[in-house]
Write a structure and sequence with these properties.
- By secondary structure, this protein is of the alpha/beta class.
- It has a single domain, classed as Spore Coat Polysaccharide Biosynthesis Protein SpsA, Chain A.
- It contains 8 helices and 9 strands.
- It has helices spanning 16-30, 49-59, 73-83, 103-111, 133-150, 166-172, 183-193, 215-234, and strands at residues 2-9, 35-42, 63-67, 88-92, 117-121, 128-130, 161-165, 198-202, 204-206.
- Bound molecules: guanosine-5'-diphosphate and magnesium ion.
- Residues 8-10, 12, 41-44, 71-73, 76, 93-95, 97, 160, 208, 211-213 line the site of guanosine-5'-diphosphate.
């Protein structure tokens, strides 16, 4: 299968070279039966990220560097995923907080047609997570709000380690309005609402202290996002799958696990 790995970046000159080289080596060694395109999605970097990104795209034939005009991690992901004709799209943070060894497990449900979207999770009993107390609390509180207000079975909507089939991406991503951090939650709630199968997998996660996230502002934006989506869902939009997604046809709505 053709698999896209998107790595969104904002001012990541320190980590970019080592991380992309690790990803390239990993897929060449461990996932030999698939073809990979690794896309560095940069919008807004003002350091040497563009120079390093272009150099990496010359060094490795599987790597592409893409500069997007406006800022926003969600905008970058939407643009790359919609432009790709890969069978499976995925993304991971450049700090590789999620263990690369978990990547084959992430794409497996999609490769075997068991799910439409697969997400790494730091909030399952089997997850192994090293991160600061503050972010752990915020993440758990957000997860609880999400589950209570949307009756979702998804626990960790915001983990930077996700994959989706091309068909799911083409159907769902154009519906996502958020261009920043809420993009992930919006994608997943829209997916679940429309009967796509989301599989959540425990992963190993080691937080990098060098973060681009303004935690309080992002938490506030995410709550606003939930409020907006709740209103949209109440109006009855996005209540069922309208198209056949694959040879298997429309998926039944998700039930509890
Ligand atoms: N393209 C793009 N990437 C971004 C933007 N903001 C953050 N990122 C990237 O998103 C990923 C996750 O960011 P990070 O700061 O590690 O988030 P944290 O792990 O939640 O603290 C990293 O690869 C960042 O470089 C943005 O505005 N545009
Ligand atoms: Mg990080």
């Amino acid at each position: 299968m053709r698999i896209n790995i998107t790595v969104p970046v904002l001012n990541e000159e320190d980590k970019l070279e080592a991380s992309i080289s690790r990803v390239v080596r990993f897929v060449e060694e461990h996932l030999t039966t698939h073809q990979f395109e690794i896309v560095i999605a940069d919008n807004g970097s003002s350091d040497h990220t563009p120079v390093i990104g272009r150099e990496l795209s010359r060094r490795y034939h599987s790597v592409k560097y893409l500069r997007i005009g406006e800022r926003g991690r969600g905008r970058a992901l939407s643009q790359v995923w919609l432009a790709s004709d890969a069978d499976i799209m995925s993304y991971m943070d450049v700090d590789l907080s999620s263990d690369l060894e978990d990547f084959p497990r992430l794409i497996q449900p999609l490769v075997y047609g068991r799910a439409d979207i697969a997400i790494g999770s730091r909030l399952l009993p089997e997850s192994t997570v090293t991160r600061c107390f503050r972010r752990e609390i915020i993440s758990r509180a957000y997860s609880t709000i999400l589950r209570v207000t949307f009756r979702t079975i998804i626990r960790d909507a915001q983990c930077g380690f996700k994959a989706a089939t091309g068909a799911a991406v083409r159907h769902l991503v154009p519906q996502v309005e958020d261009c920043s951090w809420f993009w992930d939650t919006e994608l997943l709630l829209l997916a679940e609402r429309q009967g796509f199968r989301v599989e959540e997998l425990p992963i190993r996660w080691v937080e990098s202290m060098d973060s681009r996230v303004a935690i309080v502002q992002t938490a506030r934006d995410n709550l606003h996002g939930l409020y907006r989506l709740r209103k949209t869902f109440r109006r009855g939009q996005f209540s069922s799958v309208t198209t056949s997604l694959s040879a298997g046809g429309p998926r039944p709505p998700l039930a509890g696990r």
